[in-house]
């Protein structure tokens, strides 16, 4: 089941490009951001962000969610 609150974690990572940046903005631990992002991707059945040397970048599906 989709937890709509997970969307704010995805959006923070997509905007800031890192789990640590999103964690600081959301006042949570970096592991929480990763876990919530994973939960959202699992519930949707699609990868939303790709990890690159330059940070996290949205996939095509991630662009549609954004």
TrEMBL record:
Transcription found in the keyword field: yes
One Pfam family, short name: HTH_1
Transcription regulation keyword on record: yes
Any one GO MF annotation of this record: DNA-binding transcription factor activity
Residue intervals of the HTH lysR-type domain: 2-59
Organism the protein comes from: Lichenifustis flavocetrariae
Domain of life of the organism encoding this protein: Bacteria
Alphabetized UniProt keyword annotations: DNA-binding, Transcription, Transcription regulation
Entry protein name: LysR family transcriptional regulator
Phylogenetic classification of the source organism: Bacteria, Pseudomonadati, Pseudomonadota, Alphaproteobacteria, Hyphomicrobiales
Family: Belongs to the LysR transcriptional regulatory family.
Database matches in PANTHER family: TRANSCRIPTIONAL REGULATOR, TRANSCRIPTIONAL REGULATORY PROTEIN
InterPro entries to which the protein is assigned, alphabetical: LTTR (IPR050176), LysR_HTH_N (IPR000847), WH-like_DNA-bd_sf (IPR036388), WH_DNA-bd_sf (IPR036390)
């Amino acid at each position: 089941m989709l937890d709509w609150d997970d969307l704010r974690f995805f959006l923070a990572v997509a905007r800031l490009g890192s789990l640590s940046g999103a964690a600081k903005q959301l006042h949570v631990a970096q592991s929480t951001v990763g876990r919530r992002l994973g939960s959202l991707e699992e519930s949707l059945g699609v990868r939303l962000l790709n990890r690159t040397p330059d940070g996290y970048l949205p996939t095509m599906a991630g662009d549609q969610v954004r």
